[in-house]
Design goal:
Blueprint: H1 5-33, H2 37-42, H3 54-62, H4 65-96, H5 102-112, H6 119-133, H7 142-150, H8 154-165, H9 170-177, H10 182-193, H11 195-210, H12 214-219, H13 243-278
Subcellular location: Cell membrane
Organism: Candidatus Pristimantibacillus lignocellulolyticus
Membrane topology: Multi-pass membrane protein
């Protein structure tokens, strides 16, 4: 079907509006990050007359990002890998109907997505684990925080279930005839086939963990456990903020996510298109 000229025009208008909504704030922050504080006070919205890349060096030191970066890499890496593996192991038998009450369990996961975030219950659970189980898996522990972040993989699990349902069950029978075990079948046959949806799950989990600021404040009280987002608090002034340095800090925190997205965007687009066609 060939779209009409009016339909094309409306489509371009919507695409332009979306580009403005998403790109203009990023470009504005990047422009502010290159200004001196005096230039920003004179005209916050003007184009930077000089590129003060030294702002990034000063922001890196003031935000203590070197102290927090390794924590964020640890939290994000472990949480993402564990969440993806758990989601695959849970989604495959439910998608294939290999376990009893699989539809009921899936319904429970769907219902959990509509419930409010149980912050108070999570806080009490973390205190209970610290006081009654072990201090290394409860409140103010790196392992406890990663366990808490891993427990929020419900959306990724549902995506995996829907995608695995689109894969032919004849592969299961062929693998069984060839003598492939359960783990070998999942890792060597199923995982390569669901790369696009894995990439989507990875980027969603990474964004949720890397950008988490409220969680560390609630469940991690020791500064040595803080992630990179905690460095943004260092730019809060008593009577005002140094907005160019704060803009630099925002760009520093967001840069790894942008780089990751550039590397795996092909799989994300393919996954979205495949899901749209197969559903």
């Amino acid at each position: 079907m060939q779209p009409s000229i009016s339909a094309k025009t409306i489509s371009y208008v919507f695409v332009f509006v979306l580009l403005c909504i998403y790109l203009v704030p990023i470009l504005l922050v990047f422009n502010v990050s290159l200004k001196s504080f005096e230039d920003y006070l004179n005209n916050p919205f003007s184009i930077a007359s000089q590129f003060n890349f030294s702002n990034y060096t000063e922001a890196w030191k003031q935000g203590n990002f070197s102290d927090y970066l390794l924590n964020s890499l640890l939290y994000t890496g472990v949480t993402t890998v564990v969440s993806i593996i758990l989601a695959i192991f849970a989604a495959f038998p439910i998608a294939r109907g290999y376990i009893a009450w699989g539809g009921f369990f899936y319904l429970l996961f769907v219902m959990s997505q509509f419930l409010p975030n149980p912050v108070v219950a999570q806080y009490r659970l973390m205190l209970f684990l610290r006081d009654n189980v072990h201090s290394d898996i409860g409140y103010n522990s790196k392992i406890g925080y990663m366990l808490l972040r891993t427990s929020g993989a419900g959306l990724v699990f549902m995506m995996f279930v829907g995608y695995i349902k689109s894969i032919s069950r004849e592969l299961d029978e062929a693998a069984g005839i060839d003598g492939a075990g359960y783990l070998r079948f999942l890792f060597q046959i199923i995982m390569p086939l669901i790369k696009p949806i894995i990439a989507t799950g990875v980027i969603l989990t990474v964004i949720g963990t890397w950008n988490d600021l409220v969680g560390p404040i609630q469940f991690l009280s020791s500064p040595e456990h803080f992630p990179i987002t905690a460095g943004l608090k260092e730019f809060r002034g008593q009577y005002g903020n140094n907005w160019p340095l704060l803009a630099c800090a925002v760009m520093i925190v967001a840069a790894p996510l942008v780089i990751l997205f550039l590397f795996i965007q092909k799989y994300i687009v393919n996954g979205a298109l495949a899901g749209a066609i197969k559903s």
